[in-house]
Amino acid sequence: MKIAVIPGDGIGNEIIVQGKKVLETVAHKYNFDFEYEDVLLGGSALDRKGTPLPKETVEICKSSEAVLLGAVGGPKWDKLPSNLRPEAGLLGIRKALGVFANLRPAILFPELISSSNLKAEVLGGGLNIMIVRELIGGAYFGEKNTIDIKGGQKAWDTISYSSFEIDRIARKSFEIARKRNKRLTLVDKANVLESSKLWRKVVEKIAAEYEDVEVNYMYVDNAAMQLIRDPKQFDVILTENMFGDILSDEASMLTGSLGMLPSASVRGDSFGLYEPVHGSAPDIAGQDKANPIGTIMSVAMMLKYSFNMEIPAENIKDAISKVLKGGYRTLDIAVEGAKTVGTEEMGNLIIKNI
Ligand code: IPM
Ligand code: MG
């Protein structure tokens, strides 16, 4: 089974090492073999190949069973034109691989309740929300431009969705909801946006085929507020690209830290792209400070979604729980009295518990 590995930029390089280590540990324990191929993406690809998305990266990812990605971006490349920025590489690889459904579970480990910014009674002993973010359409991929006009400039981005794009991710979300608490919230801005109206129309139609799933509809501004007010009301949140980008960062803070959140980007077959939700954190890169848990949880998602290996995936999650129970914390989730550890030691502790 071939896995393409993209360390990327910044802390991507450190967390990927830990993710691979965990993968190798479970491979050894459960007796299976992975083959890895490291490829370039983002700023490091630009520096070495002159483009944030080299052709061979796309080819190698396409010929793999799964892709494990760290993070891309950094101040060094911030002033470049959009098509050369590291983010163009990330958006480009997602698009090239056709991974339209980005699953971002916001799970609060009970051990981290005191790291969350919300009061314990609001969190009610834990939290488990699945955000399904559309990943390869909407504003980030729509027609866009900046032009000079009299007295200044004008810029625009367009949000456009076809019913086909909404249909396929809605079905996926209903299937996911079926295996969870059977509740689905479509988050949109249907009181203002045409594209949101189409989302509602398509989702309403599909909902009729999933009568066992309870559906509700919520405007995105309200959803942003409800996530803080009463996050336990949510089970599956389905939403378009930009709203999902924003709400998943918000949801991550409910769980203690952005460093904890994994993601799986899938498309309907067993192929998937797995990456933590956080970015490349250039301010702490190379200092052994980053939290590798988002990446390690992404490895667990890979085992589950691409390789159908639920037991090893659960094994990883249990190992993380045990380490947190033991009081070990990276800086981002540290509270008073915690045993603060670095990136590498956190990885080692998790391995020891597998
Ligand atoms: C994310 C990130 C990316 C996105 C950026 C880096 C392009 O914020 O994965 O959430 O917007 O998708
Ligand atoms: Mg984001």
Automatic annotation (TrEMBL):
**Per the UniProt record, which EC number(s) apply here?**
1.1.1.85
Q: Which reaction does it catalyse?
A: (2R,3S)-3-isopropylmalate + NAD(+) = 4-methyl-2-oxopentanoate + CO2 + NADH
User: Which residues hold NAD(+)?
Assistant: 74-87, 279-291
Keywords, alphabetical: Amino-acid biosynthesis, Branched-chain amino acid biosynthesis, Cytoplasm, Leucine biosynthesis, Magnesium, Manganese, Metal-binding, NAD, Oxidoreductase
Q: What class of enzyme is it?
A: oxidoreductase
InterPro entries linked to this entry: IsoCit/isopropylmalate_DH_CS (IPR019818), IsoPropMal-DH-like_dom (IPR024084), Isopropylmalate_DH (IPR004429)
Q: Does the keyword Ubl conjugation apply?
A: no
Instruction: Output one GO MF annotation.
Output: 3-isopropylmalate dehydrogenase activity
Q: Report if keyword Metal-binding is assigned.
A: yes
Q: Where in the cell is it found?
A: Cytoplasm
Annotated substrate binding lies at: R94, R104, R133, D221
Role, per record: Catalyzes the oxidation of 3-carboxy-2-hydroxy-4-methylpentanoate (3-isopropylmalate) to 3-carboxy-4-methyl-2-oxopentanoate. The product decarboxylates to 4-methyl-2 oxopentanoate.
| Assembly | Homodimer.
UniProt protein name: 3-isopropylmalate dehydrogenase
Q: Which organism is it from?
A: Clostridium moutaii
Q: What is the lineage of its organism?
A: Bacteria, Bacillati, Bacillota, Clostridia, Eubacteriales
Gene name, Swiss-Prot/TrEMBL: leuB
